[in-house]
Amino acid sequence: MVPKPHNVRFFGPSFFPPIITMNTKPTLEEFLKSIETFKEKAGADLSTAEDLSIAVMNLISLEEHFFFTAAKTKKDEYFDTIQEVRAVRKQFLEQLMPDNEGETWCIAKHLLAATMRLIEVGNKLRSEGEKEHAAQAFEGAYKIYSLFWALKLGLIKGGVAEGAAKGGSPLEELVAKMADCCDE
User: Fold this and answer.
1) Does the predicted model carry a pTM greater than 0.85?
2) Which of 36, 47, 81, 105 has the fewest CB atoms within 10 Å, measured from its CB?
3) Looking at the domain assignment, is residue 13 inside a domain?
4) Distance (Å, rounded) from C-alpha 54 to C-alpha 113?
């Protein structure tokens, strides 16, 4: 069961103005204009949510590493530590995903986990001189991360996310324009 949000600092989809409906597919310009309007209206620093999403990715990775360390060393205390890290991860994922339907909580968690793993794969491939394969992993990570943002903002409706996994989608442009970490 997904915990109910309390005192949520980061904005869920219900906070955002309706951008996309089931029957419309906005142009890229309309899409980006809606985001800019929201940022002006709410005064939101979405780069903080972007930073939090990366922190959640790392917490998920910590859960995985503690699991494998426990399995390899046969030391149960690592399983106990997983529970502590998981509690922190749940707290911050709750701030990122306060409004959920169906399995969007778990989908968000797995999108972030997949993003982190693809970044790790890309970094390893790049360090091994496999720049082309690394670029593919990084591209996949960004596409998956874009899907996370579309889910978080309630933008995945009626086929709007079509083509997001193929690249060049408005969702990728959204991440680039919306969560500008240099805009402080």
Assistant:
1) no
2) 36
3) no
4) 10
Distance separating alpha carbons of residues 87 and 169, to the nearest angstrom: 34
Tell me what percent of the residues of the chain surpass a pLDDT of 90: 46
Residue with tokens 């980061």: 10
Domain extent at residue 125: 45-178
Instruction: Say if residue 24's pLDDT is above 70.
Output: no
How does 93-115 read in b/e, with b if 16+ C-beta sit within 10 Å?
A: bbbbbbebeeebbebbbebbbbb
Taking the C-alpha atoms of residue 153 and residue 164, their distance in angstroms, rounded to an integer, is 15
Residue 144, number of CB atoms within 10 A of its CB: 21
Domain presence at residue 22: no
**Amino acid in the structure at residue 6:** H
Whether 19 contacts 170, CB under 8 Å = no
In a domain, 54, yes or no: yes
Number of domain units in the chain: 1
Number of alpha carbons in the 13 Å side-chain half-sphere of residue 31: 24
Residue 147 lies in a domain: yes
